[in-house]
Amino acid sequence: MPVLLRHAGQRLATTLLVLAGAVALLFVLTLFISGNPAQVLLGPRATPEAVQAFTQAMGLDRPVHERFALFVWNVLHGDLGTDVVSGRPVAALVAEVLPYTVTLTLSAIGIAVLFGVPLGCYAATHPGSAVDRAAAVVSIGFIAIPNFVVAILLLMVFSIWLDWFPVLGVSRSGDVGDQLARLALPAVSLALGWIGYIARLLRASLLEVLGEPHIRTLRAYGVPDRVIVYKYALKPAAIPTVAILGLGVGRLLGGAIFAEIVFARPGIGTLVYDAISSRNYPVVQACVLVVVALFTLTNLAVDLSYAWLDPRIRRAGDTR
Amino acid sequence: MTASPQEAEPLIAIRNLSVSFATGAGPADVLRNVSLDLGRGRVVGLVGESGSGKSTLASAIPRLLPRNLSRLEGSIAYGGRDLLALPDHELAALRGTRFAMIFQDPMAALNPVFRIGTQLVDLQRAKRPKERRGALLARAAAMLARVGIPDAERRLSNYPHQFSGGMRQRIMIAAALLAEPDLLIADEPTTALDPTIEGQIVALIEELRQDYRGTILLIAHSLGLVSQLCDDVAVLYAGTVVESGPAAAVLGDPRHPYTRALLACEIGAGVARRATLASIPGEVPDATRLPQGCVFAPRCPQAAEPCRAAVPPLRALGGGRSVACTLV
């Protein structure tokens, strides 16, 4: 599959370019922090000596291009700076909480796909049925309600009134059952809207594909409905849904911030929230960089999945 | 009745078939009282203008009609059973095993995102449910080679967009032949192709008659194609059969004014007509608002009073021929 490999290489190059742009932009943003960053970080009661020492330690007295070169150099080496509060390397802080956010986001996508895809398929093959109409109303409802409202409602109903799930946090130990129980509500609160999105989008594109002549060919040759819908119609119909999912990862990461705060889970969301509250600028910068990286890498994966879903997208040298 | 003189019992006997669709403008009566026999091992041509109901008639046999179907009456006898009365699952079991289809647009008839080999395996699955995938792929490769696709085994892993239109139609023909059907329905198989490619596909169909002895229902809007390929012909106008019988007899001595007009429209039908290409004045009536009496009367140069009074029935003329015209 040299065509597919070349396609992957091109996409990877684009992704690296986007990441480089993000790094540059993040650096430029630090230039626009009003006032002396050292003064802002250390607070109004810091002595001039302390401010002076901090400025030198952070290299803030050097020319802009030197600072930029140093910043890029450090990022390339995985050095995202030092937490001004604890003095620990920011990279270590991020690495510690990143798995929680990634687990939460992936679980939410998993739940959304697990329920959204069959619902969309059923609605498309039974248009106008009771399930189809009910799904339409419920989907739009869930899409309309903000994530954090759903999160708070779930927390009240299932943790406080019904006491089915633990309220807050994650268990850091190896207790997988407890970890799953604590993951369930935040993941569901993030996923609910996406179940609706996926079901509605998939229903629309499936209905379109099911009306195409190649589906008629399969019917004319007695191919079972199950194979027609879940194999031959689902693959071409999945492209718009996958595209929306790729873009949606950005929104999902944003939603994860709320879910993490509401459920007091460690993660990039709580980290960035605390960092903003305490003006811990290097941590904010690192978190934004990580989120941008996650987002661009997800879209790289989405781009590559198009090539798998639709061979016509694999460009270059396919006209034999 | 248009029983072919050679065969007493036809493969398929369509009787008084009427099909209507629900449309915004009311019910469209696309087929009315159509009766037609498809003789065993015969190539039957179905001709008529666009909108005459040819494709609907072809789709009605394997019951692949659109969802807005509002009326389906009459009977289609096949193997002692009425296809219109069969439960859905029994009819579905005949598709791909007894009936196979080739469609007009080979660009759209194949799924764009699956390999040809995968599609040919699934299209054969109904016929050979127990066969292993590898065996079905081997059969597919052999058939692709048979219909003239070079390097067939390697090309099984290609996608439809990597083939030309003519090649894709060859793939569809291969799919149909792999099913070894009793009835092969070819819905304008050459209409969407370039004229040069059309000639190749016609030559291929002629050549394949040596191997495939089943019945073919060939839908065409060109009488030239029918005279070249078909044993029998039925001429359809506005949802009714106006004339049918052995192709040589019908095309050599057309009795219905519409058949005559169609023949006159064919390029090269007569040297004298080359300068001014003939056409039939008027157009096919709207299926939601059909005229009283003979449907062709408003466009017929010979129409008389009785034509507008009552629908002329399809009458046997002997020699397997039938015509629906009061004046014959």
TrEMBL record, chain A:
The ABC transmembrane type-1 domain extends over 98-302
Which family is this protein grouped under?
Belongs to the binding-protein-dependent transport system permease family.
Which top-rank group of organisms is this from? Bacteria
Q: Does the keyword Ribosomal protein apply?
A: no
Pfam families on file: BPD_transp_1, BPD_transp_1_N
Q: What is this protein called?
A: ABC transporter permease subunit
Show the PROSITE patterns listed in the entry: ABC_TM1
Origin organism is Azospirillum melinis
The reply to whether Magnesium figures as a keyword in the UniProt entry is no
* Compartment(s): Cell membrane
Membrane-spanning intervals of the chain: 12-33, 97-122, 134-160, 180-199, 241-263, 283-309
What does the UniProt keyword field contain?
A: Cell membrane, Membrane, Transmembrane, Transmembrane helix, Transport
Q: How does the UniProt record describe the way this protein sits in the membrane? A: Multi-pass membrane protein
UniProtKB/TrEMBL annotation, chain B:
Compartmental location: Cell inner membrane
Q: How does it sit in the membrane?
A: Peripheral membrane protein
Q: Which SUPFAM superfamilies match?
A: P-loop containing nucleoside triphosphate hydrolases
Which parts of the sequence belong to the ABC transporter domain? 14-263
Task: List, in alphabetical order, the Gene Ontology terms for molecular function in this entry.
Answer: ATP binding
Q: Which UniProt keywords apply?
A: ATP-binding, Cell membrane, Membrane, Nucleotide-binding, Transport
Question: Has UniProt tagged this entry with the keyword Metal-binding?
Answer: no
> Where is it mainly found?
membrane
> Which InterPro entries does the entry link to?
AAA+_ATPase, ABC_Ni/Peptide_Import, ABC_transporter-like_ATP-bd, ABC_transporter-like_CS, Oligopep_ABC_C, P-loop_NTPase
Q: State the source organism's domain of life.
A: Bacteria
Q: Which family does it belong to?
A: Belongs to the ABC transporter superfamily.
The protein's name is: ATP-binding cassette domain-containing protein
Supply the source organism for this entry.
Azospirillum melinis
